[in-house]
Amino acid sequence: MAPLLVVEDLQVWYGSVEALKGISLYLEEGEIATVLGANGAGKTTLLNAISGLLPIRAGRISFKKELLNGIPPYEIVLRGISQSPEGRKVFSTLTVEENLNLGAYTRQKHTAEIAQAKERVFSLFPILQERKRQLSGTLSGGEQQMLAIGRALMSSPRLLLLDEPSLGLAPILVKQIFSIIREINRQGTSILLVEQNAHKALNIAGTGYVLENGRISTSGSASELKSNPKVQEAYLGGAALKKTGWTSPA
């Protein structure tokens, strides 16, 4: 059985700068895969290329065995991929519910499906139902992150792309967001997670990729990456952890 998502030898350029230098990865149906890396490594570029927001210079992106190269972003959403972007990017002058409705713009004629999707979002994020008539610009950072994820779920994707969902959040909210990501996956949505919090990401992912300077430098199961000395040193505080005897929690 073929993987749900296959990225092969992907190259993306910004003018004369090569941002992705022939990277390859895949994601199985029902899996959480994570992409780790420092700022500027190319993580967001990867997600934007999959979403059709950036042109591909070379390589292939396939989803459900169908080539996505050159397909416009709205068509990619229709095929079952949606993205929750870095920085949340909610529409601050619109209400919570209006933001969610925009997430379902490709399904405007399917009111029953939209209602069902919204019910799912409200069950995952009860605070959004409480505040559905509130302007999204007045929400806290954590609530805006919930709204960004909820908006992405309104198209009922088979694959959810999450870009730095824990960025700028307090630890208690980070724990809550990752618990919800697990639940979204348990409900049947595959997830490609870009995340700087390597501890949290590797604790919920099955597979991981380390992106450095536009290339995949290391990949493997999450447990393999957690025990990899280079990954520990760069992303898991390895030098300090060795002194304390710390081991990653399950």
Can you offer a commentary on this structure?
The chain is α/β, with parallel strands linked by helices. It has a single domain, classed as P-loop containing nucleotide triphosphate hydrolases (Rossmann fold, 3-Layer(aba) Sandwich), CATH 3.40.50.300. It contains 11 helices and 10 strands.
Q: Work out the oligomeric state of the chains in this entry.
A: single chain
- Fourth-level CATH superfamily: P-loop containing nucleotide triphosphate hydrolases
Name of the CATH architecture: 3-Layer(aba) Sandwich
Please give the number of β-strands: 10
Share in β-strands: 15-25%
Sequence of secondary-structure elements: EEEHEEHEHHHHEHEHEEHHH
**Over all CA atoms, what is the radius of gyration?**
18 Å
Strand order of the largest sheet: 6-7-8-3-9-10
Q: Which structural class matches the secondary elements?
A: alpha/beta
Distance between the termini: 29 Å
The pLDDT mean sits at 92
**CATH topological fold name:** Rossmann fold
List the total number of helices: 11
Count of distinct structural domains: 1
Helix content percent band: 25-40%
Characterize the overall form. Answer: globular
Return the CATH class: Alpha Beta
List the helices and strands and how they pair.
Blueprint: E1 5-14, E2 17-27, E3 32-36, H1 43-50, E4 58-63, E5 66-67, H2 73-79, E6 81-84, H3 96-103, H4 111-124, H5 126-130, H6 141-153, E7 159-163, H7 171-186, E8 190-194, H8 198-204, E9 207-212, E10 215-221, H9 222-226, H10 229-235, H11 238-244
Parallel strand pairs: 3-8, 3-9, 6-7, 7-8
Antiparallel strand pairs: 1-2, 1-4, 4-5, 9-10
Helix pairs in contact: 3-6
